[in-house]
Amino acid sequence: MGTGIVSILLHNLPYNGIWLYWISVVIFALNVVLFVTGCVISALRYILYPEVFGVMITHSVQSMFIGTFPMGLTTIINMICFVCVPVWGEWVPYFAWGLWIFDAAVSVLTAVSLPFLLMAHGGETHLSSMTAVWLLPIVTCVVGASSGAIVAEVLPNTQYALWTILVSYILWGIGVPLALMVMVIYLQRLTLHKLPPKAVIVSMFLPLGPLGQGGYGAMKLGQCAQAIFPQTHTLEQASGPMFYTIGFLVALILWSFGLVWLFFASASIARSRTFPFNIGWWGFTFPLGVFASSTCQLGSELPSRFFDVLGTILSLCVVGLWIMVSIGTLKGVVSGKLFLAPCLADLRVPEDDKNKDGGKAA
Hints:
Blueprint: H1 2-11, H2 18-48, H3 50-57, H4 68-88, H5 91-120, H6 136-154, H7 158-193, H8 208-232, H9 239-272, H10 285-301, H11 305-335, H12 350-361
Helix pairs in contact: 1-2, 1-4, 1-10, 1-11, 2-3, 2-4, 4-5, 4-6, 5-6, 6-7, 6-8, 7-8, 8-9, 8-10, 9-10, 10-11
């Protein structure tokens, strides 16, 4: 997700150049390699050790990270639309559309099933143990909605584009309200139980994800509706411009709300001063990245340089954070100290059970 959003930001940077375009293409290729590698490793993990999947899917924290799979795929889909469609021919939009349909289905399944498992499985969940990772499975629908708008823009068939837009609005309607409800609970948790531990303090940036991507998706869907609705005779003649205007208004409100969470997160980091490096540091990149995307999109809609300049600054900050976290990750991979699977603590090893039975018999 973090690598993918960096490639998108560099490709869509307001103040751009051909050299930045090629850097974005290289990072896009790296993102594809990372995504495929991660999928293969995960598949092998659950094929070779099927019992691990059961404890992972019922773990209150680690199961939430399943949402990173469809969100990581959307960054690839978006770059296919930006980079490959203009070069590789007419089959590429339909290939991207197929990937998006699969991604949308997985996103909905993730967004509704994982919160339900959290409600239905195991014992009581305490408010003090809640983290912002609860947002991860829900944001998949928000990210899928904005990706649907990008795919709809490149589809040659207007009827297919119309259905993609409508489904994307449904995804947006599932993800954004649910994410806002979770953010209310998270704000209550922060108020009653104070800031999270330093090890997970970076998760304070996660609420920027649904707000930034929700605003970006609202604007892109409004653009598509303005172009596609008249061509397909959908609703009234003025419906497209109305969707576009409302989308911009909603995006501006969500962006403004994002400023509040950006302050909370930045103030939390400043108060913590030092905190240990872990894989959670990737939480810096994607939420800030989608907030930067929303800022850049606001700049493209308005005759004002403010959002262009601010979007460029935020985008470059995300690139810098991505470089820093990538270096730390490589060091952690080499040392072998980076990766941790908390759910394995709940795994019952057959040998241990035999030892316990033997002890009881003795």
